Amino acid sequence: MFCASVLAVALSTAVGCSQPMSMAPEAEDRVTPTEYMAAVNATSEELKDKLTEFAEAVVNGDTFTMESKSYEAHLVIERLKEIEAPEELAEAKEGYEQATADLEAALVDYVALYSELAEAQRGASFDYSTYADRIEQIQKQYDDGLTALEEADAKATGDAGDSSSSAQASAGKDAK
After folding, report:
1. What span, in angstroms and rounded, lies between the C-alpha atoms of 69 and 55?
2. The Cα angle at residue 145 between residues 140 and 149, in degrees rounded to 5
3. For 10-50, how does the pLDDT look when each residue is reduced to its tens digit (9 = 90+)?
4. What is the dihedral of CA 128, 129, 134, 136, to 10 degrees?
5. Which of 18, 143, 152, 169 has the fewest CB within 10 Å, making it most exposed?
6. Which among 68, 42, 75 has a CA at the least distance from the CA of 53?
7. How close are the terminal C-alpha atoms of the chain, in Å?
8. pTM (two decimals)
9. Residue closest to 104 by CA, chosen among 120, 131, 85, 81
10. Residue 30: which residues within 8 A CB-CB, separation 6 or more?
């Protein structure tokens, strides 16, 4: 009986102590707006580098490097999507996700168009009459993605004039 009483007291004490301990990690695991924006800015800097490298490959007409840099940008975008946002920045996170979806689609379309051009140089058929319209549509989608990044930055910072992460990403804006 004594052992059962000691065991019951020990369990009730352990249960009493364990509840606050289990709540403490949740509070510590919450991401602050500052931590979120620091992670977004670091990832955006890496994305800017990948978009710049992609733009250089476009200028050079290097479809292999375009495809490689597009994939590398995709990996960075996936990491950006995985960054947990605090509740107060959920709208900004949605903006970043929409912006990066536009950018990814444009990158895929660029690679497809330039791959078709490369195939045409090897004898495949290509409708050159649609090239200007296609490149214009792709560039618009790319630019829209960059603009959406700026808008997401504005939502996150609360200041439309401060677009820290997307201003860096705009280095690839001239990927024609």
Report:
1. 9
2. 145
3. 333 334 444 444 444 455 568 899 999 999 999 999 999 99
4. 110
5. 18
6. 68
7. 83
8. 0.71
9. 81
10. 86
- Phi, psi torsion values for 30, nearest 5 degrees: -65, 135
Q: Give the contacts of 94 (CB within 8 A, at least 6 positions apart).
A: 152
Question: Phi and psi at residue 138, in whole multiples of 5°?
Answer: -65, -45
Q: Please give the Cα distance from 84 to 93 (Å, whole number).
A: 9
CA distance 173 to 176: 8
Burial class (CB in 10 A: 0-12, 13-18, 19+), 17: exposed
Tokens of 84: 């947990």
Tokens 């808008």, residue located: 151
The band of 157, judged by pLDDT with boundaries at 50, 70 and 90, is confident
One-letter amino acid at 76 equals V
CB-side neighbour CA atoms (13 Å) of 172: 36
Q: Cα dihedral sign for 131, 137, 139, 141?
A: negative
Residue whose entry in the numeric block shows the structure tokens 């978009």: 51
